[in-house]
């Protein structure tokens, strides 16, 4: 599992024991430095990482992939692309910039083997037939993002659906 640390908010300490690779995405390196978690990779344009964080990364021999500030991708997209074939979980993805959060939701369609995780919310992308397991009491939101979702079946939920269409203009939450 590739654990990617973005430049968003961190509600609590993140356990990295399941991480095979740790990737700091720009300002996400600041969080890792405060926790003394040395990443394997740094990816980004280094506009959000503090100068002392960049020095810390260099001192620890972290592989740095620094990109120009003017580019067509957001830093997190560069990290997702770098590890495209691997299972990924992204921490620190929630932040003050709604445009970045929305962009990331749409990137999930391209990088399907990616989960966004925080203590209060886990987000993933589903396409085609998929069985997901819920725990009683959990809150789920099922939202169509790229267009109407057809053939949606939800069993075991408070509101069930059978081969339903979920229009993008009337999401069911």
From TrEMBL:
Enzyme Commission number(s) of this protein: 2.7.6.2
GO BP annotations listed: thiamine diphosphate biosynthetic process; thiamine metabolic process
Keyword match Isomerase: no
Keyword tags: ATP-binding, Kinase, Nucleotide-binding, Transferase
Domain Thiamin pyrophosphokinase thiamin-binding per the UniProt entry, residue ranges: 141-170
Domain Thiamin pyrophosphokinase catalytic: 17-114
Alphabetical list of Pfam families matching this protein: TPK_B1_binding, TPK_catalytic
Keyword NADP assigned: no
CDD domains referenced in this protein's UniProt entry, alphabetically: TPK (cd07995)
NCBIfam families in the record: thi_PPkinase
Entry protein name: Thiamine diphosphokinase
Species annotation: Thermotoga maritima (strain ATCC 43589 / DSM 3109 / JCM 10099 / NBRC 100826 / MSB8)
Lineage: Bacteria, Thermotogati, Thermotogota, Thermotogae, Thermotogales
């Amino acid at each position: 599992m590739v654990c990617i640390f973005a430049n968003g908010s961190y509600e609590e300490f993140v356990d990295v024991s399941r991480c095979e690779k740790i990737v700091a995405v720009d300002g996400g390196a600041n969080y890792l430095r405060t926790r003394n978690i040395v990443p394997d990779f740094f990816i980004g344009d280094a506009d959000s990482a503090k100068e002392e964080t960049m020095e810390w990364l260099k001192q620890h021999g972290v592989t740095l992939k620094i990109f120009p500030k003017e580019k067509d991708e957001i830093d997190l997209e560069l990290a997702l692309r770098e590890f495209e074939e691997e299972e990924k979980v992204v921490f620190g993805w929630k932040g003050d910039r709604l445009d970045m959060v929305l962009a990331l939701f749409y990137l999930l369609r391209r990088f399907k083997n990616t989960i966004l995780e925080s203590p209060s919310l886990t987000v993933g992308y589903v396409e085609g037939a998929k069985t997901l397991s819920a725990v009683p009491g959990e809150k789920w939101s099922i939202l169509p993002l790229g267009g109407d979702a057809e053939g949606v079946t939800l069993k075991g939920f408070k509101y069930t659906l059978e081969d339903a269409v979920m229009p993008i203009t009337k999401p069911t939450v």
